[in-house]
Design a protein that fits this description.
2 domains, rotamase, four-stranded antiparallel β-sheet, 4 helices, peptidyl-prolyl cis-trans isomerase activity, 7 strands, about 20% strand, alpha+beta, Ubiquitin Ligase Nedd4, Chain: W, three-stranded antiparallel β-sheet, Chitinase A, domain 3, about 190 residues, Peptidyl-prolyl cis-trans isomerase
């Protein structure tokens, strides 16, 4: 195992030229994937990604404004009853829905502290939290989901997102995927 990245021996993190996103590559086998390989230490990987693969300010072409569509970022916490209880952070998620809800409430408090005072050491932006804590693969983009329209997302997510004003962060939203905090970007 790599002591710096937390990836199994032989694996490395690279950046896609077309998507400008990090991915995992094994040069000896030529295996590449978006999700970390089995045997990854999620805590070490999380720290490494936060230090070396921040994607702030990166806006690929798919991020261009489109009529009737909005752009949001989110932070997702999955639980064992989620539709797919696995993520880039954990190959098998065993936390209860109550535990997931408690985590999302903690993140919500950190976001509120950040919004009240960006210099508060206990505060963090939704984007910063999403990069290390979100169970969605959008974590590598600070939770940015790009533009989407009505009918593109799960009903509960879509309704909450379209109610938000630009810059606003939702209260907890419960969907089949898990529990979310959503921030409308555009």
């Amino acid at each position: 195992m790599s002591s710096e990245t937390g990836l199994p021996e032989g694996w490395e993190v690279r950046r896609s030229n077309t998507k400008n996103l990090p991915y995992y590559f094994h040069p000896a086998t030529k295996d590449s994937r978006w999700e970390p390989p089995a045997g990854t230490d999620p805590e070490k990987l999380k720290d490494y990604m936060a230090r070396h693969h921040s994607s702030k300010g990166v806006a690929p072409a798919s991020m261009a404004a489109q009529d009737g569509k909005i752009r949001c970022a989110h932070l997702l916490v999955k639980h064992r009853d989620s539709r797919r209880p696995a993520s880039w952070r954990e190959p098998r998620i065993t936390r209860s829905k109550d535990e997931a809800t408690a985590l999302i409430k903690e993140y919500e408090e950190q976001i509120k502290k950040y919004e009240a005072n960006a210099d508060d050491p206990e505060g963090k932006s939704l984007s910063d939290l999403a990069m290390t804590e979100s169970d969605c693969s959008s974590a590598r983009k600070g939770g940015d989901l790009g533009f989407f329209g009505r009918g593109d997302m799960q009903k509960e997510f879509e309704e909450a997102a379209f109610r938000l004003n630009k810059g606003e962060v939702s209260a907890m939203v419960d969907t089949a995927s898990g529990v979310h905090l959503i921030q409308r970007l555009e």
